[in-house]
Structures are given as C-alpha cells and as structure tokens.
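User: Sequence in, structure out. Go.
Assistant: Echoing your sequence, followed by the structure tokens.
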Amino acid sequence: MRRITRITTVGIASAALALSVTACGENSSDSGSGSGGDKAAIAYDIGGRGDQSFNDAAYAGLAKAEKDLDISGSEAEPSDGEGDADKVQRLTELARSGNNPVIGVGFAYAPAIKKVAPKFPKTTFGIIDDASVTGDNIANIVFNEEQGSYLAGVAAAKVTKSKTVGFIGGVETPLIKKFEAGFVQGVKDTDASVNVLPQYLTQPPDFGGFSKPDLGKAAAQGQLDKKADVIYSAAGLAGSGAIEAVSKAGKWNIGVDSDQYKQKGLAAYKESILTSVTKDVEDAVFNLIKSVQDGKPETGEIRYGLDKDGVGLSMSNPAFTKMTDVIEAVDKAKQEIIDGKITVKTAP
C-alpha cells in the first residue's frame, strides 16, 4: 500500500510548488498521463479534510481506493477566500503530476474543470454535486439530496415534542436549498402542524457558512431559543458548531453527508445525533477511481438516489433504531419515493 500525499495549498504559487514536488520528477504534459489507474487525486471543497462531513466522505473513498486498488492518492486543500484561478492552478498541477482521475469535491470546481478538462483529454475529471459542466472526460457525480432530506423530515416530525424543528444551511445555494426543500416537505407531509425554522449562515459569494463552526453554533442556539428540539444542519464544518450547541441543550441533531454519529471529531456529541442524511460520496469516489483503473472511465451524469442507496438515513445511533414507529414511517416513505408515489421537491 502506498501512502496518500496530502497537499496544503495556500495561493497559486505554493499550490504549484507543492504539487511539483509530489510529481517526483515526472515529466508533465498538456495531454495528461493517459493511462490512469496508478495515481488519483481529490481537491477538497471549502472546509477541507476534517470537516466531519462532505470532504471527509470524499477522503474515505480515496483511502479505500488506495487500500483496495493499490493506487497512490493525493489530496489538495483549498485556501481561504480563493478564486477560480486558484482552483484552475490546483487541478492543472494535479493532472500534470499524472493523477487520473482528478476529482473536484463540490460544485465550486465547475468553472475550473470547464477550463482545465479540455487541456487534458486523456485524464478523467470528476466533479461532485454539479452537472452543469460537461465534456467527454468529465464525470458529473450528483445525488438526490432532497430524497434523503425528506426522510429526515419524516423522522424529525415524528420525534419532535415541541412541534418546532430547525434547518440550518451553510450557504444559500440551489444545492443546499434541495436539502431544505426535502426536509420541509417530509416534515409537513408527516405532520402539518410542525413548524420548520429554516436559516442560512451566509449568502454567495461569501461561502464562509461552510467553514465557520461559530456561525453554526450561534444559528442553532437561536433556533433552540425558539423551542426547536430537532435541528438538521447541512453546513459542512460549520455544522459541527450547530451539533455542539444542540447536544449541550439535550436536543436532537440530524447530521449530513457522512454518518456523523461515527465521526471521531464529534464523539463527544454523538448521543445527540439521532441520524444523518448520508450521501454515498465514499463509494462514488471509489467507483470513479476504479472505473479509470479498469480502463472504462465513468463519464457524464452519474446519479445516486434512494433507489441505489446513494442517499439515505444512517442507523448507527441505537436510540434511533429503537424508535420502531419512526423507522416504520421512514421505511414507508422511502419505498413510496422509490415507487414514484411521492415526488420530492428540489426547491422550497
């Protein structure tokens, strides 16, 4: 097994320097490495590895590929306040270093992949949570987040005692509004009398709502003060702040992306994490890497929904699994979504 190389990038110059070092003297070419299968890279979204959520799920997929497929993995971190030019440089250097595939974690990489992918036609570029940028060598890995969020809404409506639940979104983007839409619909379809408090931490172009735990903590406290006793946070690293506040108040959290009950960084609060809306980012990353190694790289839209267990609710908290009436309601809703009896909204 080869070790994963983690690269912390601070601006364009240092990104280029760090990645040039990891190339270990290999010659770079504008046409890419061509073969693939030996080296793969992921470029993290805002918050980076250690967010206990989205980025960590992508890392798990790379780590699994390193172990099971004997590939050499590289990771590249974002820098605070960076622009598209930084992302272009990061992806360019990852491709020049022979990585194939190169995966951008998050929709923010769309403009950069649009510029870089045509210059490396033999390299597969993956982008998670975006289908707007397309190409012969681009794999668009997308999820039906609204479906998993609907199930979270069902659970929240069943367990709330105050008849008030909260939703915290990191940044008010179309993607995060899918989480809100599904959650609110799930709550209201289950119990129309339950009040939902939606709140966003920042507005574009300020994406700090994905990376600042203090913002999440303050938002959660505000919702707790309004009697919310179940809070669902889709806010990346900022969500950890919300989880802390909710846990200390003795109320229920619903996590996101990863099974946050199992995240080591949240171990002190795990008993408050009733469940998490999971996105199988880990397997999506692994599957893309494997497809390249097998010589049949995935391209185009690759969608993961409830029908493929690409989204869902985690069952790690024993307290949740003992709530038989809640589990029955969630299972019923899941099957009705799969069967097309329930159509989940993608916008509030």
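User: And one key feature?
Assistant: Residues 8-35 have pLDDT under 50 and may be disordered.
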